[in-house]
């Protein structure tokens, strides 16, 4: 699944890093890949995909409204990834993205980070972990 999302995820990361903008086509492509795979693949289940879309998306939306610092592109990209990968996988991706994002924020002395970059790092780190553990 991640293989199909590689180009839009990398594009979102690069443009978010350079311009602090996530193009709409990137999250739409990931959502479309998730929709197609929902009909073709048995896992993750549809309820897990819906939860993966709604829960993190609503949490980020709440944070954006209350504190600011979270852009609309970040919310849409996270929700699309949640639908494409499911809640459990998105939780693992977010966990793997947390440490590099905190290190970047501390080193750059910034309160906001380009979230797409760290979602991309988390997603590819997750893919590496799954690949390594599948070989054991």
TrEMBL record:
One of its GO terms (molecular function) is aspartic-type endopeptidase activity. The chain crosses the membrane at residues 25-43, 50-68, 80-103, 115-134. Keywords: Membrane, Transmembrane, Transmembrane helix. It comes from the Bacteria. GO terms for cellular component: plasma membrane. Residues 4-105 form the Prepilin type IV endopeptidase peptidase domain. GO terms for biological process: signal peptide processing. Belongs to the peptidase A24 family. PANTHER family: PREPILIN LEADER PEPTIDASE_N-METHYLTRANSFERASE-RELATED, TYPE 4 PREPILIN-LIKE PROTEINS LEADER PEPTIDE-PROCESSING ENZYME. This is Peptidase. It comes from Geosporobacter ferrireducens.
